Amino acid sequence: MTEKLYDKDAYLQIFEAQVLSCTKTDSGFETILDRTCFFPYEGGQDCDTGYIDDSRVLNVWGNSGDIIHLTDKPVCGKVQCRLDWQQRFDRMQQHTGEHIVCGIVHSRYGYENVGFHLGNDDVTFDFNGPLSAAELEQIEISANNAVMSNLAVSAYYPDAARLESLQYRSKKQIDGPVRIVEIENTDICACCAPHVSKTGEIGIIKFTDHQAYKGGVRIHMSCGMRALRDYQKKQNSLDIISNELSCTPYNADMFFEKYIQETARLKQTAGRLRRELILLRAQSIQKTDSDIILFEEDADTNTLRLTVNALDGKYGGICAVFAGNDSDGYIFAAASDVYDMNQVANMLRRQLSARCGGDKHMIQGSINAKKNTVENLFKNIT
Ligand SMILES: [Zn+2]
Prior knowledge:
Blueprint: E1 3-4, H1 5-8, E2 14-25, E3 28-33, E4 35-36, E5 50-52, E6 55-63, E7 66-71, E8 78-83, H2 85-109, E9 113-118, E10 123-127, H3 133-148, E11 153-156, H4 160-165, E12 180-183, E13 187-190, E14 205-213, E15 216-223, H5 224-244, H6 252-284, E16 292-296, H7 301-310, E17 319-325, E18 329-335, H8 341-352, E19 355-358, E20 362-367, H9 371-381
Parallel strand pairs: 1-4, 16-17
Antiparallel strand pairs: 2-3, 2-8, 3-7, 5-6, 5-8, 6-7, 9-10, 10-15, 11-12, 12-13, 14-15, 17-18, 18-20, 19-20
Helix pairs in contact: 2-3, 6-7
The structure holds zinc ion.
């Protein structure tokens, strides 16, 4: 059984150990030490990484009391081990932050934490009951108050009598000794992971997102430097937006709302002007005995239909008006007094996989084909 040094001292990052076995496998070398401070993948938290001598520790997991370290090179004898400390400390901050939030939610709402993931990019946890945005804001404030109170965090194995008397949270049934992690006046929880020893070390606790999840809520959270990096990123993004809108970051939401309304109004005007222009062009077309096939850059189906109607009596065979481009495809309206347009629709569906329909005089729909192909096809109808 591997001695778990992280159990007693979460801050130990360099240690000596004896290699008990090192076995070559398809993915590297599975190494067992007499003692370790590499925390294995457990309970939703990714494992520690680092070095055993100059071998890279790629993965760590538990197996019947042993901790297995997957290394990229073989190791033997007495070894010097080193954790990727920045990563470990960051996880201690996130994990302790999670305890504070779960403690507050449990005491305030009685909800259990039913899911947890702590990786390098995201921290999520799930509660088995719903929480509104306003409630989450209050929980966030209380959690940060607990950080600023710089409360003591302790980890211990209570004896059976003491354990019996403790009211503690636990995510699962635990066989063997129960390790309790206690945050002064805030939370008592069974947990085997490393945590910071004072809540002040966590830094800010910030919820970055939440969504309804399996009848409860899933929260995304960032603590400490992660939260700062998140703030910086959002600040940069908001600076760009507020510069473009000529406002401050504090009223960017109001200016953006105005911008959306103005854009909608401009789109409406542009649509109306485009329709008028297309119809004017159609009216200026001289009467012919041949077909009229027109391609417009941008128009809606209604405009295409109105244009075909405006050209009524000006063509001999068929009139078709398209809008779009070769890469996105075209929408169209087409009419004829000579040909049965239902048959034309059948042919377009068969030859160009068009989606279209209508009656024997007029059809409309969409085609995913190039302009040349469409033109050639229509030439062959007549
Ligand atoms: Zn924990």
